[in-house]
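FORM 7B: Structural annotation worksheet

SECTION A. Query
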Amino acid sequence: MRVLITGGAGFIGHNLAIRLKNKGFEVNVLDSLERSTGLAVKKLEEAGVPVTKVGVTSMNGVKNALKSVDIVVHAAAYTDVAESMENPMLYLEKNVLGTASVIEASLKTGVGLFIYLSSAAVYGDPVKLPVDENHPADPLSPYGLSKLMGEEVTRFFSRLGLKYVVLRLFNVYGPGQNMAYAGVITRFLERVRRGLPPVVYGDGEQTRDFIHVEDVAEAVELAIKTKHVNQVFNIGTGRPVSIRDLALLVMRLQGIKGEPVYAAKRQGDIRHSYAEISKARSLLGFEPRIGLEQGLKNLIQEAC
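SECTION B. Predicted structure
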């Protein structure tokens, strides 16, 4: 079975590509390499995963890469919430038009399944917790809006016969994140490695659902194999963690005493969010395996 991963030299993409390659899939990566790291590209080369340098908005380039592909995993996206607030048109272009380009190319080349990696950012500030897949979508940032519009593009084109699975990822962390566009965990670890306390934006009581990239990769593998297509699934742990507690845990694991540094709340940040994952459990057989403390310990050890 041949799988093509767009954005496959990105954080989630390269971890996923290597996992699928190790599981016996024939894996190819499509990436503009604009925001990839040398480390990710090196890991792909070492794993024997071919990389095609093409941006997702290049229809002809994408179409050529999709010949004889069975499954597309669309992981390519710009993901920085703060950047999206400053430059919303960039996010609409890359994330929405890019998705439409890949889907159209998938239809024209006979791809059997399109897996779209979406985001919990589509929900905005939850009106109920935990957040299930039927929760209203009300994004607070152009990034969240772009991911929701990508979902709508996916659903629209499915009317023409393309089967899809949408995975709404919560806060993904793990090895290989690009520091320039990293999540809160990577930023916290970068600070404590230099002997500095983490910087917490706001009061630290906001909560998130942190899911390890290996668990996300497993969810994608399960989506590849599922019969439950044309469905949306939350992918998280189902457990909320406050940003303050996360900061203190990172400090404890790194042996730093004291308190985090607090800064002003950032525009577009969601207050509370954690996933209801019973649908993914029952239909995909998904079960997160890597606890937060163990995942953090692994990241700290890998950096030593």
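SECTION C. Observations
The radius of gyration is 18 Å. The chain is about 40% helix and 15% strand.

SECTION D. Sign-off
Analyst initials: ____
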